[in-house]
Design a protein that fits this description.
81% helix, single chain, 222 residues
Length: 222
């Protein structure tokens, strides 16, 4: 353990030194709690970052105006979507383009949200399981009796394990709920952005088609 601490940066070392005794005092239930938290935080934070990169916080109208000014140089992720959609030969091809965009770019986030919901539900239950095992350890020490240092050590270890796992499970669940809320909001925002971009592209395609700049659906190859 000392060798591991020596390899840590000086900024992190005091935090790890303080957290390690608390973590070890939680008993074996801290291991599944750590795995649950790692899965939940990794999925949540990576998904939030990915949605921001995809343009969930960007304005579709602004991206549309930029594309109209420079169709050959689409700027940003929304500009790339507009350029790809407007490169469609038919309206049906454009609808297929946006359908694939939703199925491949939006629905995976919904699956990640489902996994996060499972992790949020499991975290307090794992903490409660650690509480039960800690109380069993405490009762085992009380059953031995004697009042010696060994008995008091068993009792204090059981109480510490019960409290630490309960607190950790609640902290993991609460932070998971917050991350899940922000992820859900960003996913809904991105879906609205994509739907708005689809409306703008289809309207422009139909107007160009009506003006004769594009062949009408079913006239390709005539």
């Amino acid at each position: 353990m000392t060798a591991v601490l020596d390899r840590l940066p000086d900024v992190l070392r005091p935090w790890v030194e303080q957290a390690m005794p608390v973590w070890l005092g939680g008993g074996w239930a801290m291991v599944p709690l750590a795995v649950t938290g790692l899965i939940m935080y990794t999925l949540g934070l990576s998904s939030l970052f990915q949605l921001l990169l995809l343009g969930a916080r960007r304005s579709p109208d602004r991206a549309w105006r930029q594309w109209l000014r420079r169709p050959g140089r689409p700027g940003g992720p929304l500009g790339a979507i507009i350029a790809g959609a407007m490169g469609s030969a038919t309206l049906h091809e454009m609808q297929t383009f946006f359908g694939l965009l939703v199925s491949e770019g939006v629905r995976p986030f919904a699956r990640r949200l489902q996994i996060m919901k499972v992790c949020v539900a499991c975290a307090p239950l794992l903490g409660l399981l650690g509480t039960v095992t800690g109380m069993l350890t405490t009762f085992s020490g009380l059953a031995k009796g004697g009042g010696g240092d060994q008995t008091m050590g068993i009792i204090s270890k059981g109480i510490s394990e019960a409290l630490i796992t309960t607190e950790t499970g609640l902290v993991v669940a609460l932070t998971g709920v917050l991350i899940q809320f922000f992820l859900s909001r960003q996913q809904q925002r991105y879906e609205k952005v994509v739907a708005h971009v689809e409306t703008l592209c289809m309207r422009e395609f139909q107007s160009r088609q009506a003006a004769g700049a594009l062949p009408r659906t079913g006239e390709e190859g005539v």
